[in-house]
Write a structure and sequence with these properties.
Blueprint lengths: L7 H16 L5 H37 L1
Helix pairs in contact: 1-2
């Protein structure tokens, strides 16, 4: 089973939703650890996407300079 690739905006939206639930104490203690792990994975995805985008932009800018 292949996982659907999540976009940066979808990841951010999910992080914000989970954080809001944590702040509003809407999460059961039993679910808290799972949600924190999910947020950690989403943050990693976002960081990777930002890093890749930064590299691509720098490459484009170097091509423009030449």
């Amino acid at each position: 089973m292949t996982k659907k690739k999540i976009s940066y905006n979808e990841a951010i939206a999910e992080i914000e939703e989970i954080l809001q639930k944590i702040e509003n104490e809407e999460l059961d203690v039993d679910d808290l650890s799972e949600k924190v792990k999910r947020v950690s994975a989403l943050i990693k995805i976002c960081k990777e996407k930002l890093y890749k985008t930064e590299e691509e932009v720098e490459k484009i800018l170097k091509e423009i300079e030449n």
